[in-house]
Amino acid sequence: xxxxxxxxxxxxxxxxxxxxxxxxxxxxxxxxxxxxxxxxxxxxxxxxxxxxxxxxxxxxxxxxxxxxxxxxxxxxxxxxxxxxxxxxxxxxxxxxxxxxxxxxxxxxxxxxxxxxxxxxxxxxxxxxxxxxxxxxxxxxxxxxxxxxxxxxxxxxxxxxxxxxxxxxxxxxxxxxxxxxxxxxxxxxxxxxxxxxxxxxxxxxxxxxxxxxxxxxxxxxxxxxxxxxxxxxxxxxxxxxxxxxxxxxxxxxxxxxxxxxxxxxxxxxxxxxxxxxxxxxxxxxxxxxxxxxxxxxxxxxxxxxxxxxxxxxxxxxxxxxxxxxxxxxxxxxxxxxxxxxxxxxxxxxxxxxxxxxxxxxxxxxxxxxxxxxxxxxxxxxxxxxxxxxxxxxxxxxxxxxxxxxxxxx
Length: 408
Known about the structure:
By secondary structure, this protein is an alpha/beta fold. The chain has helices spanning 11-20, 26-45, 83-90, 96-99, 123-149, 222-232, 234-238, 267-272, 277-285, 300-307, 331-338, 343-352, 361-366, 369-375, 380-404, and strands at 51-56, 61-71, 93-95, 111-116, 156-165, 168-172, 178-181, 197-208, 212-218, 241-249, 253-260, 290-295, 313-318, 324-329, 355-360. The strands form four sheets. The chain has a five-stranded mixed beta barrel. Strands 1, 2, 3 and 4 form a four-stranded mixed sheet that branches. It has a three-stranded mixed sheet with strand order 10-11-12, sandwiched between helices. Mean pLDDT is 84; it is low at 1-9.
């Protein structure tokens, strides 16, 4: 009970202050408020009994009741019930001696109903209720964020830069939802400023005890490039042109492979647009990142050749049992094919899904047959990796088939 000299604090008013600061669904708020009041009432009464809360939405009045059945002894329960289930049922009963502390005339079989005066709750009970309400709302907010954004991973979203926290950018998504663009998910050399509108893709939703649910955005991922093309190129949005792959060095260079099943549509031309208008809009959004648009082809050699264009490919040789292709390039194009710090060949390799081992024509011609055979010989680690990837691919395929197989 509250101490005599302790100033009275209106518990309901304290809890309403917490609720008013949150923009949450009324049902969620109501549930959290009831739980907080139940916890406070039990702490105030020093009992773990059935407490019910009634809220009159018309008058905005809140009443808290202790409601139990008075008994001589607790009833027998089903032996298969769990301890928690038994404890829950016990909350609805009160022994005679304890019940008479609330009503001297209480007898076995009576239904005891006592209104608990929330205006006389002690500070400790009020603090407990406030903490519980805050936690319940925080949990509800986390769940709401998770439910709203988890199924939208990989899709484009727009927001406004709220602030910078170290090297991370905090973005407002509206309705009091904040997202973060970590430094590694930002475009190189890009400097976002407070108040700036920004586009990004939803990379993932992270959950932690400290920060709750956190929406993570990305401007550096391949998905962001895909979504930009989907926005700017109607043929991609409508599905007549398909994005087959993306490789990026964010802020510097990217390669995107596109394909059309309709021979009347040039997929590369569709992406470039009239006088380059479509691709230039994307380039500006990416801070002048250079974009190579590659016409995808199911023939691996053709695809590799296009991915390294305009280099003149002299010879392509797959190394058996590995994921590596040896590429011999005309010396005049060698530097261009490799790119600064190997950037171009790395992006091409990522795009085609092969390790590309590049040689100049003269360098390759200077090798004797034994040296060439050594280059084309599978390396032990390559064989192990290829076997592991192959096993994983087969295992995934088997699982997919099993999931689709109808039950007997």
